[in-house]
Amino acid sequence: MKTPFIRGLFAALCCAGLLAAVPTCAKEYLITGVKPNGLVVIDPAARKVEKSFKIPGAGVAPGTIVPSPDGKIAYVVTNHLESVSGIDLESGKEVFRADFSGNNLRVKAMFAMDVSPDGKELFVFQSPVRLLPSEYKVEDTRIAVYRTADGVGAKPVRLLPAPRRLAVLAFAKDGGTLWALGWDLYALDPKTGAIRETRQVLNWTRENYGPPDILDVWPQFEQAAVFSTPYFTSRTDLPPTDPSAFKTGVLTLDLASGKLEMKDFENTSAVIFSSVVNPKKRDELFSVYTQLSKIDAAGGALVKRVDLPHTYYSINIAGDGKEVYVGGTACDVGVYSTDTLDRLGQIEIAGCPDQGVASLRMIRR
């Protein structure tokens, strides 16, 4: 057992960088959003809310949350999807803000957003509409690029062409490719927006299969550097009365190698919204909605499933791979063992504000 003196000395050495190789020097925190305009920092190890901040301006619910690579700032879609606010996670001060709409142009950010690995640029998928006297003119979708150093009042430094219906943006580990998930998966040039490659998803040509359906607006890939999402599809060679005609699978994209896999793991028996990969057992995946599922992604098999006390939309995982966290929807974050799926704890957010569809992200500080 460490004495208070030893614990203090250990912490001081960590802060001084003398124990930089020791993993425990970097403490993990969960970030979530709450209605109408709140940002919450959670200490999952202590099972408590560490800090709560108010996002300036109007809004009914925070959307996508993207932490800066150093874990100091959270970029949040807010203001009825028409702004991004960057909140300092220590002080709660707004240190970045980009308001999209102006003049007769109404611009919404529909979920997809990511920050470059060096933290210098923020990429936001936008849907603009021109408000004319007698009509609304739908304009081309785009990705607006902002310099994070431009702070409050930031304006786009580039507007990149982008396919419609993008739900997730995810940078490759080396920053050279911006992956964009829509009806298909696109590898974009982050400088020009040019589509370098299209990986077929909805438009796959898998024999005896119909097109897969994906509903995913939760970008929780930071722990394993693998983006994952459930998909649902049907067999065209089987009658619809056959239970094995309907399949659930997982799509995984390794953000280091670019390897994409789509593999069925069960006859469809549950609704799933979001998923996360275990950073210590990369073939192990967890997914959530009204149930928490543990999936063998490599073997294409459901390992275990447990009922949850209520619906959860979003999910994340500890860096050591031992605990999985479920959030979104209500005002708590559930803590589960990745080994047994036993419920280990629950973190309540004061006042019981609804998290809605806010991302559940992990930072290390």
UniProtKB/TrEMBL annotation:
Residues 1-26 form the signal peptide. The keyword Transferase does not apply. InterPro entries: Host-pathogen_enzymatic-act, QH-AmDH_bsu, Quino_amine_DH_bsu, WD40/YVTN_repeat-like_dom_sf. Keywords: Signal. SUPFAM superfamilies: YVTN repeat-like/Quinoprotein amine dehydrogenase. This is Quinohemoprotein amine dehydrogenase subunit beta. It comes from Azospirillum cavernae.
